Amino acid sequence: MSSDPIKINSFEELIQHEPEILARIAKVPNGGNLFMAHPFLMLMDVGVELSAATQEEIIQLDPYLTGLSPTSYRALKATTHRQLIRFHLRGLFRRRET
Amino acid sequence: MSLLAGFDMVTEFSLAALLRLIKSQVTLAGIIVNAPFEFDLTVAAGGLDGSVHVIVDDLTLNLNSDDSATLTFKFSNSSILGTTPALTITALDGSFTVKTPLGLVALGQNLMAPGANLGAATVNVAFSQAAQSKLSAGLGGTAISPAQFTSLAQSALSTLVLQQGIVPLGKGFKVVTGSTGALSPLQYERLELHCIVGSPTSQALGLFGILLVSHHSHGNAALKTAPALTAAHDVAVSISPDAFHSLVFCPAMASSLGASVSGLPKSCANAGELETQGVSLTKIADSFTSGHVDIDGEFEKSGFCYDASGTFHGELTFTVSGTTLTPSLALDQPEVDVSIPWYCGPASGFAIGVTALVGAAVVNAIAQGIADDYAEGAVDSILGKSVPSQSVSGITGVSFDQAAATSEGLTLNGLASIPMPPGTAKGLTLTGSVTTSDQSQVSSGNYTAILPLCPPKVFPYTEYAQLQTASYQAVPRLLGLPITLDWWILAGDGVTKVSLTGAAGTIPFPSQTFFALPLPAGNYVNDAMVHLTYAKSGSMLSLTNVPSEGTFTFALYAKATDPVGNVAEILVPGTSVMFEGNIVTIGGGYQDYAAQCMATFGKLMHRFRPHADLTFTPWVPVNYPSPDTLISYIRTIVASGDIRADEALAHAKLAHGSSFYRALFSPEAKDVGLRPKGISASDFEK
Q: Phi first, then psi: what are they for B118, rounded to 5°?
């Protein structure tokens, strides 16, 4: 699997690249948990470069994502222990209502 | 070494426990073999007619790999007492062994008990070198050689042993072939008994049981080459993982989860999954390992925005104390995999909620489902209200203090309570009684009785002189035969000791003597000289009184010395003997009249007793009361200080006759300070 950066300029592009991004997250130890803790840092760590507009678009769709803290993310990233609760992602973010 | 050798349950009894069981249940010549003990062996063959008195000092047990037991009886100070030819050989020592097959004995339908087939035992007698020399010397001049005598003794002993037949040890185990058994109450599907012989110092009797009908053909006892019993323990019970799984774990899980065993998922059944507390249990398993039992399971849970599946793991350990086995389950946090679809997104609050929801549900389900009820279930199944071995082999209770889990199973070690018969010590007992051989009338007349609180009334009386004989036998315990006996008496004054020397004779000694008349109290003479005629025959002594010398009492003593100098004697206060040479009988309904009057008097004295907490005996009915009862009554009268006390005592004596004297001269009376100078109230120490 390529580790090349993935540049994302819109939510649509993000959905197009969702399978590859999910695969990159699954390869990271505790990747699902890291994504649940701070999706934007996790995306950055797996080489996804989100444009500011795309990030704004995601937050508009899910306002809960404004209150994220990097602290728990870094703590989780620092450990190599397998977590008791392990999240497995089948999608990245909520879609627009059609 | 295999713990269970393929069986579901193995119960081991230590040599010490087995020996206690034998000592409490096996008899030889009608004597329980709780060494030390003694028995007589009749030998009437090969030109010898006589008996052998055997004193067994010690009994040891050895188990053999051919499923037999060897009992070794060590004897000493034993004697041959021959009548034909007349001979006495004493102080013989040696040992005899009884090798008996062990097996299961059918006690009834579906009931099997461990047993010793003494009917198929082999007996061997061996005299010590010193004893063989004594035999050579003692049998010299007869037609019997020491070897022949040994053979005769062995044959006689063998007959005695073989007569015992099959001796079951205990009440038995329930065994129902073709049906899965149970741990509580214990029921086997198949049962075998084998000796487990690891080494001369590591032996046990093992009950090898199959509990699961599917295991009917399992098990090879030969694979168990050493006991699981640990030091200083009597009983070890080992249960296989399979038996634990089927008879403890799965039923406990089913019970605690509100399901049937068949409704459980693998590994208990194949129901697929069991819904409990919002979680689908898909697997539950137990496996034995060193030190604990692993409990593992799998579950699934789905909800809005997530699908979760997880596993859990716990370790079950056991502590045991007395008859209480306490399982303790340490459950790890379950591991959960949560699958999140795209439409839920990664909102952190949601993630925490899912974690809490899944985690809490699983922990609750497992902890409540397994730990609490499982623990209780395990205790009930393994020990229940009764320890499995409780109803077996005379063991009334096992107190376990050690539990150990290994990959082969769970083993409990404990101590058994086996009620033992009282032991025997060297000693001497006098058995006998006084009988009246002749009675002659001395006088008769009418007596006007004036009883307390009753009008005077006339009653007929008759005075008798009685010739009496006291016959006593000295019975030694654990003394070699023949014994030499020394007899003596201690007069009623407690000071005058008179030896009974020679084979027969007459002895005079001073005594307080009592006469029935004048009524009601009679009369007494201090320091009167009385005479007893005695005759000895073997261990028997007979004593005869002179009727005209009245009623008196004394203590009889004896001392026995055996051939090796062991001594046993009758201890103080001796054996109390009373001769009643002079008595009176009173008719006309005096007994009923006296009882009625004295009871009324007693009630009055009780009402006005000097102290409210005084133990008060108002009256004792005339029906051979115990000395204690009469002594209590006499003390009541004396303590009352009532002016009618003498009168009351006199009538109590008249009404009770012999019983009154027996009470006065009993050891109990002496113990409480009642030793009358006469028979009026003032004669008693208060």
A: -65, -20
